[in-house]
Amino acid sequence: MLHPAHELTTISETHDMGVTVMPDIDNYLSDLSARLSDRPDGATRLKMKTLLAKFGYKRRTEARIVQMHEKLRASGLVADFGLDYPERIDEYVVVRVLGRAPMPNEQEALGEEPLREEPIGKSPQKEPVGESPQNRVIEAELAPREEKTRETDSKPSSRPQPRKAGSLRLFGAKALEIAIELFKRPAGSKDPFEPSDPPTPSGATFQETEYPREPDLQNAANQAIAATVVIQSECCEGSGFFVHPSGLLVTARHVVEQQKVSCREIKLQFSDKREAAAVVFRSHPRLDYALAWTSSQGTYPILRLGQPQQLRHAETLLAVGHPSALRFTVSRGVVSNPAYSYRGIEYIQTDTAIDPGNSGGPLITERGDVVGISVWVLRNIGAGRFALPIDYLFEDIQRALAAGRQACLAGRYCRLCGFLHLDRDRWYCENCGTQSKTLLGLEKDP
């Protein structure tokens, strides 16, 4: 079953969602519980990033948060974290023994301010004059207090620290030693400081097409154009792209949404003027993405899934989409911030031109790997274009391929929250609770 989509999800489906936990996590939690039980305060601090890594994760999702809390509680522990807090995974969370009452000023004793989510302001979506919601990228205007909000870097804790006396001399001596070793290195040998090849993305296991890995902007643009389509729904128009040759398509939720209700059927237009139909079977209102299968079987050009977490500042990016009537437009820019955190979600910030019509289109690297989905912009800010990192979709894509086209299209799709029920007998949505037969595709309401 595809994992719950709604941000207020309270139902746990971890037994059927393919969530994998590190095999040694039970031993780690048992040992941690025993050690904390011997402490007077019964608590400790861990970085959210460290806790995620112990479970074998890098990002937070609703399903993972639910399962982590269940595992902690089963080991006699509780922790103060959720999908939206702490805002950054480099911040600390307090882990304590279950049932142990918090000590007065416990946070201060642990050297941490009280943990709570600090809102960064509302972002009302305003319609540009003369534009309709049928052809737009979602725009957000941050409140004045947001201007003081510090943008999140991929490594915010790596700021320079004061050096001790004499450390510069030691550093100079070490640098000289390294330089001598480099001059001694035989010709043709590998540079010890050269980074190794990036690991294969977890979502690339089902990719079949191999692309040249050397940077080639023209080749990358041609691949992206071939794999990108124009999407026309009942009310909107935007972009989308294929991630599997059997016809699995990715786009933005707001491209297929009208009055907070998802469309079911959409039309596709290819760069060679061909047309096709597709059916939406999964979407996520908060993360703003949607998945669809083509109605007819065939082989489609695809984009390789990249690794957004390996992006760096000033790295070249290309955006492909259909701004206004300018079909299959390619724009070029750089990474402004590889991990801009907003309301608990990390976005790729770029100055690549993203305009109305680019919504749902791919953001790719110079090697042709798709790393993000164009979703929203900040008005009048050149570097204020944002894409959802593609690895937020890895689990849904893999589950969709495991279930298959027929099972996904035959399931009960809740058009309100975007949840898919593979059980066709389901008469209500177990994610958001709606009993509307129209929204569940059963029949029209009386």
Unreliable stretches: 1-20, 104-136, 141-167, 185-212
Inertia-based shape: globular
Q: How do the strands line up in the largest sheet?
A: 14-15-16-19-18-17
Q: What's the story with the biggest beta sheet? A: 6 strands, antiparallel, barrel
Number of DSSP-assigned strands: 21
SSE pattern: HEHHEEHEHHEEEEEEEEEEEEEEEHHEE
Which structural category fits the helices and strands?
A: alpha+beta
Strand content: 15-25%
Please tell me the overall pLDDT.
77
Description:
With 446 residues, the protein is of the alpha+beta class. It has a domain at 14-109. Helix content is 18%, strand content 25%. The chain contains eight helices and 21 strands. It has a six-stranded antiparallel beta barrel with strand order 14-15-16-19-18-17. The longest helix is centred in the middle third of the chain and has 18 residues, at 167-184. The model is unreliable at 1-20, 104-136, 141-167 and 185-212 (pLDDT under 50).
Concise summary:
The protein is 18% helix and 25% strand. The protein is an alpha+beta fold. The longest helix is centred in the middle third of the chain and has 18 residues, at 167-184.
Topology:
Layout: H1 25-37, E1 43-47, H2 48-54, H3 62-74, E2 77-79, E3 92-97, H4 106-109, E4 138-140, H5 167-184, H6 217-227, E5 228-232, E6 237-244, E7 248-251, E8 257-258, E9 261-262, E10 265-269, E11 275-284, E12 289-294, E13 304-305, E14 316-321, E15 329-342, E16 345-350, E17 362-365, E18 369-378, E19 385-389, H7 394-403, H8 405-410, E20 412-413, E21 420-421
Parallel strand pairs: 4-18, 13-18
Antiparallel strand pairs: 1-3, 2-3, 5-6, 5-10, 6-7, 7-12, 8-9, 10-11, 11-12, 14-15, 14-17, 15-16, 16-19, 17-18, 18-19, 20-21
